[in-house]
Amino acid sequence: MSGLDLLRFASMALRGHRLRTILTLLGMSIGVGAVILLTALGEGARAYVTNEFMALGSNLLIVLPGKTETTGNAPILGGTTRPLTLEDCEAILRRGRRVRRLAPLSVGSARVGYGEKRREVTVLGSTPDLLPVRRLEVGIGRFLPEVEIDRGAPVAVIGRTVQQELFGSENPLGRPIRIGDWRFRVVGVLAEKGQSLGLNMDDVVIVPVASSMRLFNQASLFRILIEVGAHSEIDAARLDVLDILKERHEGEEDVTILTQDSVLGAFNRILGALTLALAGIAAVSLSVAGIGIMNVMLVSVSERTPEVGLLKALGATPRRILQVFLVEAVLLSTAGGLLGLLVGYLGSAVLSQAFPAMQTHPPTWAVVAAIVVSLAAGALFGVLPARRAARLDPVIALAGR
Amino acid sequence: MIELRGLTRHFRVGDQTVRALQDVSLTIPDGDYLALMGPSGSGKSTLLHLLGCLDRPTGGSYVLDGHEVGTLPEGELAQIRSRKIGFVFQFFHLVPRLTAAGNVELPMILAGIRPSERRARVAKALAAVGLTDRASHRPDQLSGGQRQRVAIARATVMGPSILLADEPTGNLDRASGKEIIELIERMNRDGLTVVVVTHDPEVGGRARRILKLVDGLIVSDGGTA
User: What is the pLDDT of residues A294-351, one digit of tens each?
Assistant: First the structure.
């Protein structure tokens, strides 16, 4: 019996029980489809986060007040942490040889108003260097003016959404807005940016950092963003900055400095684990589908007992009977696997269409694993029924018992 | 040529031993036409299964064409069934999803014969049983007599020397049964050794030789004339 004859015989047997075959295929394809789709989702999330970070450039240091032992995680605030001050920024700028530019960041939330309109908005306090450091662009007008870091100025740059909500079609440049009880003059509007690192940059107001700290009565900065000259210098720059701050903070290491790599590494680890967890959940459904195949094949062997007897009477060896049923199981699982692949790819295409920001592409390892596992599932779960068929006594089988 | 010497077949049923065949000695020359008759449970089907190498004897010797086959492993018995023996059953045992041609082709597929040769032999076998125009019909589209003729074509397509038929007319009306017996007789005249198990005295009466079994023992062996 040639391989082609075996395949033909098996496919005819499967076509003989159309509904049962379709239902088993469905089970298998859902299992494989789930693996493909869920791992694509996990990988998509990872690519999304990586892109978000890479958009900031790879030579960024982020200084946070407070100390944590593990890099990559947010520090637990509290204890005797000294504030991060504008003087710290000046010291870093003055003495940090590898520092190209620096942007202090203070964050608060305030009601922003123009005329009769009011809007609750995130207010960022920073310096003109925030523009290159955060890769922002100005749509109209200009960004924050160059003033001394510890001197505020009553000027503000607003996001696109803030502009549309407060000013509508009116030109906002030169107009006064209220932030809390303070008055600021709009000098520029940011170009549309959307979500960036969890913050909607279209719905912010940016003011000079000293103004913002006074506005929110803050003693400490939220972050200091430092851009280093070259990626290769990032570790040395981190140590420089740490030394400077340690010296200024009476010898105590009470800040955390994250590098882009460490944050990205932490996210990659978390999202990698998430992808594996999703793959694990999907694998459960795949194994359920495999057991479904075994069940169908056992039913098939028991229904076709007289046929097995006949095949033996016609000269089929036990080995041949084993092959016939095994090929049938593998054919079933492989067809289900291919169908699942189609379902997975279609599903991720639909997701990519629905959420263009997060491109979901099934990872190659998951596709290969799904095909191999579906093949193996057929062989593994097909062995028991096939062996049962091969061992049938021809006389008893012919009698249909 | 079939030679049985002191053949026995015992089965264990619970803690009891059932002696289905006891000390059966028998010679069936090539081209013989033998009817196995006897009441239910007399051992005639057991003897037919042993003759067809579907079962192994508990004791004694079974020599087929000069070779002892009673002790061969299953793989070699399968080879003998494929090349030397054709089976016809009371309930036809056709594969329902295959056409008449597909059913006839089945033993050749199992034996690994090339597709082109298979097609030629299927056409010849179906022509020999008068079913050329029913080649593409499935079993549920055929009458009982036609189904049994497909089964005979399948049993003979590999060119066996022995045809074993277990109640071949048991599930057919009288006219169809008569046609089937005539077909088998024609094949016997062409040189095929035929062994038929039957309850029907009319079918048995047409054989050249009748072997009567009672309780696993041969009680008579003689011609019908």
Answer: 888 888 888 888 999 999 999 999 999 999 999 998 998 889 989 999 999 999 999 8
The ipTM estimated for the assembled molecules is 0.93
Is it the case that residue B33 has pLDDT exceeding 60?
yes
Residue pairs spanning A and B at CB distance below 8 A: 65
Residue A33 tokens read as 């489809």
Handedness of CA A277, A282, A288, A294 (dihedral sign): negative
Backbone torsions φ then ψ of B32, nearest 5 degrees: -70, 160
B54–chain A nearest CA distance, Å: 6
B75 contacts A314? CB cut-off 8 A: no
| Contacts B83 to A, Cβ<8 Å | 315
Q: What is the mean pLDDT of chain B?
A: 92
Query: What's this model's pTM, rounded to 2 decimal places?
Result: 0.71
More confident residue, B68 or A264: B68
- For residue B94, the SS3 value is coil
Min distance A4 CA to chain B CA atoms (Å): 10
The shortest C-alpha distance from B50 to chain A (Å) reads 10
pLDDT in tens, B180-203: 999 999 999 999 999 999 999 989
Residues of A in contact with B82 (CB under 8 A): 314-315
Residue written as token pair 């072997």:
B211
Chain A partners within 8 Å of B106 (Cβ):
311, 314
Task: Return d(Cα B101, Cα B87) in angstroms, integer.
Answer: 17
What are the DSSP E strand ranges found in A229-316?
A: 255-259
Rounded distance between C-alpha atoms, residue B193 and residue B160, angstroms: 9
- H or E element at residue A90: helix A86-95
Q: A5, B107: Cβ pair inside 8 Å?
A: no
- pLDDT (tens digit, 9 = 90+) per residue, B72-116? 999 899 999 999 999 999 999 999 989 999 999 999 999 989 999
Contact predicate A6/B110, CB 8 Å: no
8 Å CB contact of A314 and B98 = no
A1: chain B residues, CB-CB within 8 Å: 109-112
User: Inter-chain contact B74–A318, Cβ cutoff 8 Å?
Assistant: yes
Residues of chain A with C-beta less than 8 angstroms from the C-beta of B154 = 314
- How far apart CA B118 and CA B128 sit, in angstroms, is 15
State whether residue A9 sits within 8 Å of chain B by CB. Answer: yes
- What stretches in chain A show pLDDT beneath 50? 70-71, 78
Please tell me the distance from the alpha carbon of residue A100 to that of residue A233, in angstroms, as a whole number: 11
